[in-house]
Amino acid sequence: MDSPVESFEARAARIPVHGIGLSVDVFSPDLLELHQALESAGSLPEYLEIFKSPTRELARVCAALPGVPLAYHAEGLWLIDPAMRFATPWKQAVETIARHTEVIGAGWATHECAGKQIGGYSFGTYLPPLLTDASAKAVAANTAWAQGCLDEWFAQKDKPGAVPLLLLELPPLTYFGFGDLPVSEFFAQIAERTSCGMVLDIGHLWTHWRYRERRRFRSPEAFAAEFLATFPLDRVVQIHLAGLGVHEKDESLNRLPDWIDRHDAPVPGVLFDLLRQVLGHPGLTALKGIALEVDTKAVPVIVEEFGQLKGEQACQRAFSHRVGEGVTPSRFDRAGYQSALHLAGLPAPTKDNQGLAELYGVYARVASGQEVLGSSGIASLAEGVDLEGLHRYATRYLPHELLCWGGDIAELFPAIWKSLEKRGVITTDFMRFWFRQSRPVADPYDFFYLKLERWVEFVGEVAPDLLEQAQSEAGILRALHAELNDEAIVVESPA
Question: How far apart are CA 260 and CA 210, in angstroms?
Fold first, then answer.
């Protein structure tokens, strides 16, 4: 029976070195136009990691860029949720990863070690896990289970050598983080229990220093030194570098910037410093790629920053020997897969993690400002929490996220919005409605659909005379969104 280390090494050995590339969206900016601009600048990426997109678009890109190695950045699989295997449509999410990675021939599938649906509450951007022993065990179990299901999916197609390696990405902190473990130890515990790879995001690393560790470490470099001593660097398959910037509605009054992860923002010099520090560590033995994340960034800025990344001597040295170019893949071993599940301590899908799941519900309510931290069940995990940051998240960042991110409600429903404003209905009313109660997670995650559904319900409650109009307009928007994403849905007529 292979250990998690042996299983990881066998899987990673099948992945060739990818080099220095880009982590990109198909549409924003247009990927083929971006590729042409980089080609004109004489600075083509050695590979592309593509964010989750409609299957037809992934196939189009693959056909348009023959010979370019492609990797995949997944979405919608809530690996941090202790209730994942009995309370979320996780099988559909895994099958989507399988289909998409098959289409583009991806050697790995990256997923944030974070969630957008927690304890029955939905968010538009990621919340990190609770950094505890129990949570690390739950993440490891979910990750091993998801990898095993990918193995089986490709085995059924008689393509065991095409199975992508699931990579967990160090998540960002958006102003705060809870837990009683250092984040490096949290990931070390995951690595002990499962064979997944890791993505070390340099900007995310900075946010852990800024919003959780700066009381103990005077500089991000000092924090990184301790982090690198514990984090499972031998599992790092990819490194991400992306921008940091202030929130659209936030202007920092502090000497230290209130930066958060923003792919459209410039990459500050401190991140290049941290990148060099990471690449200089001898424990980084399984690295296959370094990617600049550029979705939503202006093309001229991408060209400039990617040229800077490629010019970094530390990046060139990281791949100078081109080790790990791949081996002949072994056939899928079903007995070995079952043994790996046993080794990781994975139970069949049950409600054994109910206590931890309930704690995550408390976490979601505290993060959204619906429950007071001091009297909550996660108060004991709040040591070092940036309380000002938590308040900023709940009162400024999250309302903007719900109303504006992924589709501005005021622009999507202008007449209804103006009417509600005249009646004294405000943003906080919609916030309270959104987080008033937890809801079962039944459908694959799509934040745009969630916004439309909740908005119609909200209008029906606060302005019943506008409900029919809201239903009609939401139906049109759903149909347009489905067409763009190549989905088949039934648009119901207004009740």
Answer: 9
Q: Which of these ranges, 329-343, 370-384, 450-464, has the smallest mean pLDDT? A: 329-343
Consecutive H or E run containing 460: helix 447-462
- Helix/strand/coil for 140: helix
**For the segment 401-456, what is each residue's pLDDT rounded down to a tens digit?**
999 988 899 999 999 999 999 999 988 999 999 999 999 998 899 999 999 999 99
* Alpha helix positions (H), 131-182: 133-156
Helix or strand (DSSP H, E) at 414: helix 414-422
**pLDDT tens sequence across 283-307:** 999 999 999 999 889 999 999 999 9
Structure tokens at 273: 């410093």
Which amino acid would we find at residue 424? G
Query: Integer distance in angstroms from the first to the last C-alpha of the chain?
Result: 58
| DSSP letter for each residue of 203-259 | HHHHHHIIIIITTT-SSHHHHHHHHHHHS-GGGEEEEEE--EE--TT----SSS---
User: Which tens digits make up the pLDDT trace of 226-246?
Assistant: 999 999 999 999 999 999 999
Beta bridge partners of 260: 245
- Residue 21 dihedral angles phi and psi, to the nearest 5°: -145, -160
The pLDDT, as a whole number, for residue 412 is 96
The DSSP call for residue 464 is G
- Cα 88 to Cα 183: distance, rounded to the nearest angstrom: 25
How far apart (Å, rounded) are the C-alpha atoms in residues 451 and 457? 10
Query: Which amino acid appears at position 9 of this protein?
Result: E
302 within 8 A of 296, measured Cβ to Cβ = no
Kindly write down the DSSP assignment for every residue of 297-317, as one continuous string.
Answer: S-HHHHHHHHHHHHH-HHHHH
- What's the confidence (pLDDT) of residue 406? 85
Three-class SS of residue 118?
A: strand
pTM of the model as a whole: 0.91
The Cα 189–Cα 140 span in angstroms is 8
Domains of the chain: 4-318 (3.20.20.150), 408-495 (no CATH)
